[in-house]
Structures are given as structure tokens and as C-alpha cells.
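Bench notes, bay 3.
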Amino acid sequence: MVGENPGLGGATAPLAVRMRPRTLADIAGQRHLVTPGSPLTQLANSDSQSGVSVILWGPPGTGKTSIAHVIAAASGRTFVELSAVTAGVKDVREVMERARNTKEMYGTATVLFLDEIHRFNKAQQDALLPGVENGIVTLVAATTENPSFSVVTPLLSRSLLLRLEPLSDEDVAHLLERAMNSPVGLAGELTIAEDAQRALVQYSSGDARRALTSLEATAAIARALDATHITVDMVSQAVDRALLRYDRQGDEHYDVISAFIKSIRGSDADAAIHYLARMIEAGEDPRFIARRLVISASEDIGLAEPRALEVASAAADAVAFIGMPEGRIPLAEATIFLALSPKSNAAYNAINAAIADVRAGKLGTVPPHLRDASYPGAKALGHGRGYIYAHDAPHAIAEQRYLPDALVGTRYYLPTERGAEANLAERWERIQRILRGE
């Protein structure tokens, strides 16, 4: 969210609000969404009749709300904003009725911006469907959670899903420079030291709102000291001092988490704990660390130590339950357990190889004997014919083909001989022989 919009909130509004963009060209980052002819560009075109609804999925501070405002302002549509935290079905129906009247009486379309749509339950989301399907409103919904799990399928199928990415350090730095000099920002009254700007960029972690809020707080400190130059010490008074130590050492956010994961993968528990401590002292979001541990348990350890995923997931739950600083203890426990566990990426490689085949069109049809035979007429089509119920066979493994014809003989899971997976490797070979009738 870069740009200058003096009509938003006035001089007393927060800096993040004053700096909201007026056009899609002013949006920081998200170049992949604002190219000429893109759905967003068409929505923001006053001459366009496009009424396609969109769901904006991305982290906080990446411009979801700003994009909605730009679409409404640039296209001349009526803009209505609801928050799923406070709105209900009644509010949605009232908006739909007003939008219908506005369209019939004045010929003006309505953009409904619904923030945090993932907080709406199924009934509330279903209330949106008639208006979206009939074009009464153009829905622009924002969410920080995966819509595949938080948005009902009918609404997903009627909307275009657009993924927003965290802002790069260059995007945030440019945003801060604009805010420093913009007439609706700090208007050039202050200058900023290079290390102070780097600290603000680091602290933001790709969140434009956080960057601008931190700059505003730092500027207030500078004014209180009758200073005209923002220093890194002033930034340290406005935001987390520990995070600034993280930045002063020259450690980029992604570099440290990369070193953390690679230390776990390399089985160096001391190094992994060191990087964990640096992130904790830097004020890194413990939920982010916990998520990375869960991923590491699945990607790098897998079935060589099946308990790794349990331990990592338990640590994530514990952090969410008890918070920090005590949350550092289950994080450390999980880190050490994962680092010392035997390693296997066989499951990771298996799913990647299978997905690659699917994307390449290597599918084939489901063998008839495996197809659903529960509905009327299925048996007449040969569904289920010849299927052998595995529990009726010795060892509950029947000589039977499961892969489609086009993939017979394909091997995706290639277990290692490390840890618990060694036993799985031996069992998998025996199963394969039985399935083949050998």
C-alpha cells in the first residue's frame, strides 16, 4: 500500500491510512496481480463491465483493504465495507437490498468489501451467494487463511482467488521513503539514518501497515526530542529492542529461519538451538517458528521417526496455549528432538513426484473394480466387479491392482533404510510382492 490519498481520514488519521493508494499502480508489491489486462485491472477500470468477484488471500499488511478501496473508487462503483468479525446475516441481506435498489434506480453497481471472510460461518457465507451469483454486488473478500478450508465451495467457485505475497524489503523501503516525503505523510520534516530504515524494514516482515505504524511511532519520539533526524536508537524506543539486535547483526529474517531449518536437517542440535534463541530474542512470531518445525518434521524426518510430527504439532499447540516467554520451552524441546531424529525425505519426494505426474496429465482412469458401487446403476456399469476385500485375504493384503493402467509399475514412495523407515521399507517390499502376486 503505497501512494498518497489525502481523502482518506485527513491529517489526523493514522499514517497507514493516509498513505493508502489511489490507483493499482500505487500498490506496493503484488506486481503479478496488477499487470495490464489482469482481473484486478479490469475491475478498477471505469469503462469495464466486469463484475467478477474476487477473494484476496494473503498475510496482514499486503494491501487487501487498499485494493478494495481502489477498485471501488476507480470504477465509480458504490463501496460498502463489512467486517466478518461484527457483521451477520442480517447485515449482509441489508447490503444486498440496498445494492439491488441502487442498481435498479441509478444503474450504479456496488462493491462489497468483506474483511476476514474466514470468520463467517457457512450460513453467513451462503447469504452472500444470491447477490454474487446475480451480479447485484461485486464481492471483494479478504482473508489471511487458506480459502480452500475457510470459504464454502459455492462461493469459491463463483469467485476468483488471488494470492497476495508479503512485501519485499525493497517494497517496504520504498514505502517508508514515500511516507517520509509525501505531503500526506511526514512531509519531509524528518530525515532517517540508513540503519534506522533497515531496522524498520526488518521489523515489518513484509507488512506495510506495521512498517508505517512503526515509522509513525518513531517520528513521534523524534519530535518529542526536538530532533530532525531519526536514529536507530529512536526506532529501538518505538519497537522491540531485541528485534533491532537481530537486525544490527545483519541477520535477515529469512536467512535465520533458513539456517535454523538446515541445522535441524543436518542433525546439529546446538546450531538449531542457537538460531532458535536468536529468533526468540528478536521477537520473531513463535507461531511462525512452530509452523516451520511442523514442516521440517514432515519434509526432512518423515517416516524415519513418525513421532517427530507429533512432537512438532504438540509444540505448536503448546505455544498457542501458553504463549511466550514459556513457549520457548516446547519450541526448544521440539527443535532438539527433530535435530536428533533420523532423517528421511521419502514422503516429501513421493508426493512431489505424484503431483508432477498429475500435472503432466499422467492420470489414467480409476480401475473399474475400485469405483464406487454404492449408487443405483453402478453395478450395471461394472463398478466394483472383481474387487477383493483386503480383510478377507491373508495378512489383509490381496493380490490386486490399485493404480490406473497408465501408471502400473510406477513407484512414488522409495523408503530409506534410516530409523523406523527401515522397517517400513522391508514391509513395503513384501506388500508389493503380494500385490503383484509373486
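Next record in the batch:
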Amino acid sequence: MLLTTLIWLATWILLYLRLRKPNLVPISKGFLHSLWFISLALHGALILIPWLESHTLSLSFLNTLSTVFWLSSFILFIAQLSRPLEPLGLFIIPLMLPVIIISSLYHHQAAALPLNNGLGIHIFLSLLAYSMLALAALQALVLAAQNRQLHNHQPGGLIKILPPLQDMEALLFGLIQVGLFLLSLGLISGFIYLDGFFGKQVAHKTILSILAWITFSTLLFGHWRYGWRGRIAIRWTLLGFTLLMLAFFGSKFVLEYLIHST
């Protein structure tokens, strides 16, 4: 855990120096990518080793949050090789570090799930959707900051290194399109493979996930048909992401840390 945290921290520092101080500290892209890949490998090992040992998956709140952060970081690493998404790493890594530390120090036992009968497919697709749409939400927050500074004619700080506003919006809708596709597959696989998809135990998750799907679908339709962008796109993205996170993380947090602790 300590080594993983330190390597991630070093990755963030090099990324910051490369983007903010390129003349002061020249850092090659290849070296940064190598360190980023090592960070992903070490973090992935923390997630994968317990699964290899037990052949079951523990979907506790912290374990799932750590997995979603890892998937988001992995998707970002692959995407930034061909698209100007590198600056998002400056925002996602600081959010991920405390999750890695807390999840390693605090082991909450959750029900272990055997990955059979299609359950593993549903979980994998759902986690991919959460991770992609988490990147979209992060992109929306960065876009909101960029939009506000440009309207106030005070561009500065990290905003200076971001791509133009139109490119940032195009990236946002690209992330949402892929995330919505994965979320659709996750819902379909849940309907096929899960018993009681609308049962008492998971009804709230299903309903909130469907509401999130409707929100993102409406946003994409509005963008295509009416040219929705800017603040409207940011608000709809954050609303959809909030619904999606409440569907899974909200209920897990309440069950594991509020109900069980009382």
C-alpha cells in the first residue's frame, strides 16, 4: 500500500511539473507514462490479489471505490495517449490517494460474491460504466471552472494548460457516449443475469440507475437536437452522475457505515 501510494504521488508530481513547469523541469512523456503504468500495476495488484486468493469478489464500499478509481485512471491513461486528456490526471490522482490508504488500513468485510452465472459480466460492465461516467463528471467540473474563468476574463492556474473550450466539450460528450453505452450493457446484463432485478434488495439501485440512464440519454439527445452545451451540459452530467453514484455507493455507505455501526 505504501509503495503504491508513493508511486502514485510521484506520478502526480511529474505530471504537474510536465504540464506547469515544462521549461524548469523537462520530463519526457515516455518516462511519465512508464511511471503511470507502474502506478496502475501496483494499484491493480492490491485489487486483484484478494480476488485471486478467494476466487470471489468483495464489493465493500471502499473496495469498490478503489476499483472504480483504478478503472478511471486506466481508462484515462489509455485515452490520453491519443487525446488531450492528460490534465485530468492532476485532478483524479489526489482523489484516489486517500481511498487507497483508507481501504488498505480499514478492512470492512462485505459479502463475497462468486463470479458465476453471468454475475461477473454484469459487475464488470457496471464498474466500467461508473468509471467512464466518473471521468465525464470530472471533465464537467474542470469544464465548469474553465468556462467560469474564461467568462470572467481571468484564465490562470491549471486552466491555462487545458485544451480550448470547444475541444473540452467535445471530449465531455465523447466520454458520456461511451459511458452511456456501457451503462446500457450493464442494465441489460443485470436484467438477464440477476434474479429479482427489481426486488426489494436492489430496487433502489435499479431505479436510480435507470434514472441516470434517462438523464444522460436526454442530455445527448438535447445536444444532438437542440445544441445543448456549456452550463446545461455540465448540470445534466453532474445530475446523471449523482444519481448513478447514489444507486450504488450511497446505499453501500449507509448499510456499511451508518446502519451496521449503530
